[in-house]
Specification:
single chain; alpha+beta; Nuclear Transport Factor 2, Chain: A; 3-stranded antiparallel β-sheet; two-stranded antiparallel sheet; 7 helices; 34% helix; disordered N terminus
């Protein structure tokens, strides 16, 4: 039995992630993850289990189902999942020979690596919606400030001159000018 204080707060409403100041809980393949770190730890556990098994890297049914549900949250799902999925494995993909990743194996034997970190970022966005790899990340100062361009001497570049300032004419203007001179 669940204690009453866990179900309802002082307001008489059930506590939610929004009222606690946390991200909302996520349900993936029947598993509930209350925070980003909980999901990351679970995925790292999957990676460790597969690496220790020393097999071909194929995921077991429960892990495969969870990874498939995560992949549905990938920003480029439609491009990644273009054929029926036959298996999901963890290992090295030819596109990324230095890193291990989760790889979807399709019915036509083609493989597609899927970034689990991008899926996690979609499920648990960073506070304020700022990307972690942006120039202003971690400063808390809002969006990054643009730095004016300078040349080698440190001077700001001059703007482009207009057609009139460069004494350039369009062909139609030149033709009209020559026609006026020939009519005289």
């Amino acid at each position: 039995m669940v204690p009453d204080h866990a179900v309802e707060g002082e307001s008489g409403k059930a506590p939610t992630a929004e009222t606690d100041g946390q991200s909302p809980a996520v349900n993936l393949a029947g598993r509930k993850f209350s925070c980003r770190q909980e999901l990351v730890d679970h995925i790292k556990g999957i990676q460790k289990r597969v690496a220790e098994a020393q097999t071909d890297g194929l995921l077991e049914a429960e892990d495969r189902f969870l990874l498939f549900h995560m992949a549905l949250r990938h920003p480029r799902t439609a491009l990644k999942l273009r054929e029926p999925v036959r298996a999901i494995r963890y290992g090295v993909h030819q596109s990324f020979p230095q890193n291990k990743c989760f790889i979807f194996v399709f019915s036509n034997d083609l493989e597609e690596p899927v970034s689990w970190t991008k899926c996690v970022k979609e499920l648990f966005p960073a506070p304020g919606g700022a990307a972690e790899n942006s120039a202003g990340a971690g400063t808390g100062s809002g969006p990054p400030v643009k730095v004016p361009r300078t040349d080698e001497a440190g001077r700001a570049p001059q703007g482009e001159l207009s057609r009139q300032e460069q004494a350039l004419k369009l062909l139609s203007e030149e033709a009209a000018s020559q026609k006026q001179h020939s009519d005289r």
